[in-house]
Here is the input.
Amino acid sequence: MAKAKRSFRCQECDHRSTKWMGRCSNCGTWNSLTEEVESAASAAAAKAIPTTAVRLADVPMNQSGEARIRTGIGELDMVLGGGLVAGSLVLLGGDPGIGKSTLLLAALDGFSRQGVRVLYASGEESLQQVRMRADRLGVNGDHLWLAAETDFSRIEAAIRTEKPRVAVIDSVQTVSVPEVTSIPGSVSQVREVAHRAMKLAKGTGIATLLVGHVTKSGELAGPKVLEHLVDTVLQFEGDESSGLRILRAIKNRFGAAGELGLFEMSDTGLKEVPDASARLLEERAQGAAGTAVLAAMEGSRPLLAEIQALVGHPGPQIPARTCVGVDRARVLMLVAVLQKAGLPLHDRDIFVNAAGGLRPIEPAADLGILAAIASSLMDRPLPQGVALFGEVGLVGEVRATSHSAARLREASRHGFRRAIAPARAVDQAPEGVGVVGVRSVLEVLGELSEDT
Here is the structure.
């Protein structure tokens, strides 16, 4: 009989070693190696079983009924690309207490009210605790089945027995497979649970949602292969001190990646924020230096966001460059471009913030960031009713960006009658919006110097 194979796997990078080490030789993390025991597979089981290839034209459009299962939550359906696809595997990640389970219970409530059979398997709460939270949120339980279980084999058996159209496993870090000897939440356990969940979803046509934890840096915990296995990766973000929550589609095989949905946490659960631009700008300080309104794109959704900048004197220490919600490397590049244009920023503290929890990382955010920094340095507010967007190059040129018409329509819808944008966007302006087409940073600075 073949002996069991023992190895040690890093919980951070998934590197495998034949012996234990205090520090991973691949990623350098201390005390991250855990022991794994693998049973040797028989030669017969290892033989490849031939499969039958099917011509693309002969494949049915959908073998599980409707192509999409709508949750009834407009923001969530939009981020998913129109609803859940039958047989898809979705991963939802977020910080502890951010509202992942609340969002899923709201979605299951929507399914249940439509008569869609759903199953919720919790590895973190008892049935009574789930019932208490569901009652507080007013969840309809007519078509909702619950299971409190951490053994994936039992969860899989319950799903196959009840035959729901939608299944939720909360969370992938607390569920384990008995055949894998490592502890729940380890790299090998998470990988095996995700792999079996993927086979279950594809084999039965049941849309399956996995809840995942995140690390201190905000990345999804577990091996990177977890994100490759699933069809969709959703990130739920927000500041616990505020009620605003942002749902992002990091990956989506059945829709546009980068889509964004906005929610607000209340005593009775999550509420949709259909007008994201109005919510993000409602607390903006009017007539203040160092703020600019960016016409951004999140997936296929245009929205307006506030970019804030503060430029100050550092004193004897090295000047600080602090960025929140924006790409620090890109901010440093824009500071260098402004210095080249004649602005004295080399000895100044510079702080840049994307207000409201938004993270505009697209190149089109350059013009908004640049204008906010220049406004703070000159202590001169930007002209009233102005929105900005455009990419800035290293030699100070302003480059065209995509979706100019959508950005300008969103600005017009919220009362902005003027925009500073790349020159090519002038012809795409809707009625009532005057677009100042700029080709260089010097032209932008000239516009900012006008009387407000």
Summary: The longest strand covers residues 301-312.
